[in-house]
């Protein structure tokens, strides 16, 4: 952290190969490939306000509703920042198609061909639309007990689950959701950076005696940055068959 900037260091060998000693008997040296990526932190706030009478007349704890709601607003902003960063990636699966095992396999192959450590399942994430998930649930590889330990048709709908070595998240706010061109993502955790000034994060609530109103406020300084383009693949998905009529 430097002022209002968060600097993410990406270090790699830049495809270096081993060398032998030179004719002078010395081993040739090389420098590490170091790239600094800067995410600018911006201040964000949410401030709901209600009169004391409004809180009094509500059916439930109005102050608690304001406090819980303002946290949700900030969490949605975090999601938006990360999705905006992912959207700047350039690797794609090509023409839109419906969700399938083949589409997932193609995405993993694209990342693997770009030397992404796809075997690190704790660091592999997929963000998909509800329609993408609906198609996956109709495949035996996703739903059958012959292939998975956690059966998706047993128990409640899970917002996050692990399958095919990837941690999957269903998100309703992806670009193009409900259309023939939804943008879903498969990526390695290290390819995307999000920074929050934890010391500056603030949540407060209070009451104004002069104007007789109650308020709740959440404030955060945060920013996101795509760190490694080759670590993200956009899965272009056709979700148009699953829309309300």
Protein architecture, described:
This protein is an alpha+beta fold and 245 residues long. The chain has one domain. It is built from five helices and twelve strands. The longest helix is centred in the first third of the chain and has 26 residues. The chain starts with a strand and ends in an 8-residue tail after the last strand. The model has no long low-confidence stretch (mean pLDDT 91).
Task: Describe the SSE topology.
Elements: E1 5-12, E2 33-40, E3 42-46, E4 49-51, H1 52-57, H2 62-87, H3 101-113, E5 124-128, H4 130-136, H5 140-143, E6 160-163, E7 166-170, E8 182-188, E9 192-196, E10 202-208, E11 213-226, E12 232-237
Parallel strand pairs: 5-7
Antiparallel strand pairs: 1-2, 3-11, 4-11, 5-8, 6-7, 8-12, 9-11, 10-11
Brief characterization of the structure:
By secondary structure, the chain is an alpha+beta fold. It has helices at 52-57, 62-87, 101-113, 130-136, 140-143, and strands at residues 5-12, 33-40, 42-46, 49-51, 124-128, 160-163, 166-170, 182-188, 192-196, 202-208, 213-226, 232-237.
User: SSE order in H/E notation?
Assistant: EEEEHHHEHHEEEEEEE
Total of DSSP H or I helical runs spanning 4+ residues: 5
Mean pLDDT: 91
- SS class: alpha+beta
Spatial shape:
flat
Rg, nearest Å:
23 Å
Q: State the low-pLDDT regions, or none.
A: none
Number of domains: 1
Largest β sheet strand count, sense and barrel closure: 5 strands, antiparallel
**Distance N terminus to C terminus?**
49 Å
Measured by DSSP, the beta-strand proportion falls in 25-35%
Helix content: 10-25%
